[in-house]
Amino acid sequence: MNQLCTISIKSYRSQKINNINPTSTSTKSKRGIVPSKVSEKPLVFSLKYFDTSNDKFHIEHTTVSYAMKIFEQLQILSKLSLFDAKKAGKALRFHSINFSENKVSENTLDIKDISLDADSNAYQFQLSKRRGRVVGFIISNIFYIKWLDPEHNLYPTKGITICPRGETDCDKKLEDKDKKILQYEELLEELTG
């Protein structure tokens, strides 16, 4: 049974990604690259290989706003082809993963079905700078989500952060950051009027 999941939410905040024009309106990119027919199809998301057993990538400590951010990004990406997602640059930070790099904390996605060649098709995209990444692999136009990485543990910059399962301390830190950002946005709005 194929467990494909295309997520759509009716409303989401406008992001830089809105400036990307899907390849369906043109046959060549600005760099003259012609996308393959596979990469022209919109991305579809599957949870068939979703894994919550790795302590580096569990989400028990996340908030509802974290879940909403996942849905918002999935909605945005489900309107784009693989070709468009790759060329989005910093707006999505959608890129392949090279497990042989020293800065990557895992050696493999550990997908048992070797016919999939998951590691050589591994990708990640950002939810936001402070909300981490979504990690998985792509076959055809299907992005199989393997891990949610709210603490940036796949590419750790300050060491790996593992919040114990069921602990709400990390959740409180995210909520505090959200409150501060909202306060700064309100102050900026008052000042710029």
Question: How would you describe this protein?
Answer:
- The protein has 193 residues and is of the alpha+beta class.
- The chain has one domain.
- 25% of the residues lie in helices and 16% in strands.
- The chain is built from four helices and six strands, in the order E-H-E-H-H-E-E-E-E-H.
- It has a six-stranded mixed beta sheet, with helices on one face.
- A hairpin with a 2-residue loop joins strand 5 (132-139) and strand 6 (142-149).
- The N and C termini lie far apart (54 Å).
- Mean pLDDT is 74; it is low at 1-37.
SSE order and pairing:
Blueprint: E1 4-5, H1 37-40, E2 44-46, H2 64-77, H3 82-87, E3 95-96, E4 122-128, E5 132-139, E6 142-149, H4 169-192
Parallel strand pairs: 2-6
Antiparallel strand pairs: 1-2, 3-4, 4-5, 5-6
Oligomer type:
single chain
The secondary structure category is: alpha+beta
> Mind summarizing the main beta sheet?
6 strands, mixed
First and last CA, distance: 54 Å
How large is the radius of gyration?
A: 18 Å
Provide the domain count. 1
Please count the beta strands (DSSP E, at least 2 residues each).
Answer: 6
What does the average pLDDT come to? Answer: 74
What share of residues are in beta strands?
15-25%
**Stretches where pLDDT falls below 50 for ≥5 residues?**
1-37
Shape field:
globular
> Which range best describes the helical content: under 10%, 10-25%, 25-40%, 40-55%, 55-70% or over 70%?
10-25%
